[in-house]
């Protein structure tokens, strides 16, 4: 106590500035790591390309040069990885905030399952064959699943508690997965069209897919990133958030719209990819603490690092074939998540 009394009155402010400066430094370092991940995505694969050759391909493309063609084919793949990784990680962080549950993510709460079922129905009934045509079905399925989870969890006296949201999401995900399987086993053509997309992949995605999902991803990211202060209030409980002047239903609705846009776009572009939205927010909390004003942008930067890293490993682990990124994120993400869960302080939001 005597030591505290002897500190100058400006000490807390100075400490706050130091912490903010350290966080900005971490943000710059994270951005640099993301840039390195993009560089590796363009140069590493079954056919490695040197950095000078990659720069030549980007600045002075030569159609007769095979290495240039390889680099050019990896550019949209890398861009899709950036968009989908940012979308899934940011959506996972926002869901954990509005649900006040460290296990919340688009997969566990059934949102990805809803999008997947809607895409399967679109393939079965309307013969959809491209990621851009999956988009609206993915949005509809993700939105319907989110509404259903919240409606089921809201039943009862206590309303939508974190535990009830997790249980309702897990039950809905299981049910929607069963319906998806029922549709698939009844149609061989639907199964053939769906099975490669279902694994989750960045391969074969072109600029048409990027152009279709990018506007919705941008809107979803903006809606979600601006809710950091609101999520900080919700983390204290609904009553405290109301006492701080927050419109809790409106705040949840705006965040939910952003999450649906992010999840629907990501699923339409690359398929249902697991663990990104679950692991990255926990890793970010380890780096910057529990302030959602920092958690959300850090998640948007680190999500693509995990996704692109998994994609790179999948390209080189079993040459000349590839392991799809949806498999690799589970293989790489599960041990990381187990390690994070074992750190007890990471289990709290």
Summarize the structure.
With 349 residues, this protein is mostly helical. It has helices spanning 2-6, 11-43, 51-59, 66-99, 111-126, 131-154, 162-185, 188-199, 207-225, 228-234, 238-243, 248-270, 276-288, 292-316, 325-342.
What would you say this structure looks like, in words?
Keywords: Cell membrane, Membrane, Transmembrane, Transmembrane helix, Transport. It holds the Pfam family FecCD. It comes from Arthrobacter pityocampae. The protein is mostly helical. It contains 15 helices and no strands. α3 crosses α4, α4 crosses α13 and α6 packs across α7.
Task: State the distance separating the first and last CA atoms.
Answer: 30 Å
Write down how many β-strands occur, each being a DSSP E stretch of 2 or more residues: 0
Summed up, the helix count is 15
**Regions with pLDDT < 50 over 5+ consecutive residues?**
1-18
Helix/strand order, N-terminal first: HHHHHHHHHHHHHHH
Cα shape: globular
Assign a percent range to the helix content: over 70%
The largest sheet, given as strand count, sense and whether it forms a barrel, is: none
Classify the secondary structure makeup into a structural class. Answer: mainly alpha
Subcellular location: Cell membrane
Main location: membrane
Keywords: Cell membrane, Membrane, Transmembrane, Transmembrane helix, Transport
GO cellular component, one term: plasma membrane
């Amino acid at each position: 106590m005597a030591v505290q009394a002897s500190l100058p009155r400006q000490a807390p402010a100075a400490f706050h500035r130091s912490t903010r400066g350290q966080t900005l430094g971490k943000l710059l370092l994270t951005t640099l790591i993301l840039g390195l991940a993009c560089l590796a995505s363009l140069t590493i694969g079954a056919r490695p390309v040197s950095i000078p050759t990659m720069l030549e391909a980007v600045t002075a493309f030569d159609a007769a040069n095979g290495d240039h063609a390889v680099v050019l084919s990896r550019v949209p793949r890398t861009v899709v990885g950036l968009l989908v990784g940012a979308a899934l990680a940011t959506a996972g962080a926002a869901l954990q905030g509005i649900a006040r549950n460290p296990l919340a993510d688009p997969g566990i709460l059934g949102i990805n399952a809803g999008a997947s079922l809607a895409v399967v129905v679109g393939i079965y009934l309307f013969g959809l064959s491209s990621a851009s045509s999956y988009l609206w079905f993915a949005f509809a399925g993700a939105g319907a699943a989110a509404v259903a989870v919240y409606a089921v969890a809201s039943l009862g006296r206590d309303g939508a508690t974190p535990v009830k949201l997790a249980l309702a999401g897990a039950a809905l995900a299981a049910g929607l997965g069963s319906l998806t399987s029922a549709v698939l086993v009844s149609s061989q053509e639907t199964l053939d069209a769906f099975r490669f997309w279902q694994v989750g992949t960045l391969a074969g995605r072109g600029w048409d897919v990027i152009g279709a999902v990018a506007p919705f991803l941008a809107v979803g990211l903006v809606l979600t990133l601006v809710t950091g202060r609101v999520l900080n209030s919700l983390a204290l409980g609904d009553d405290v958030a109301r006492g701080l002047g927050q419109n809790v239903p409106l705040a949840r609705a705006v965040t939910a719209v952003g999450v649906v846009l992010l999840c629907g776009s990501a699923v339409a572009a690359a398929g249902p990819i697991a663990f990104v939205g679950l692991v990255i927010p926990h890793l970010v909390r380890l780096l910057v603490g529990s302030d959602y004003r920092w958690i959300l942008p850090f998640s948007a930067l680190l999500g693509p690092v995990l996704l692109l890293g998994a994609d790179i490993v999948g390209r080189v682990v079993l040459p000349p074939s590839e392991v799809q990124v949806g498999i690799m994120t589970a293989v790489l993400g599960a041990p990381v998540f187990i390690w994070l869960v074992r750190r007890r302080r990471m289990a709290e939001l």
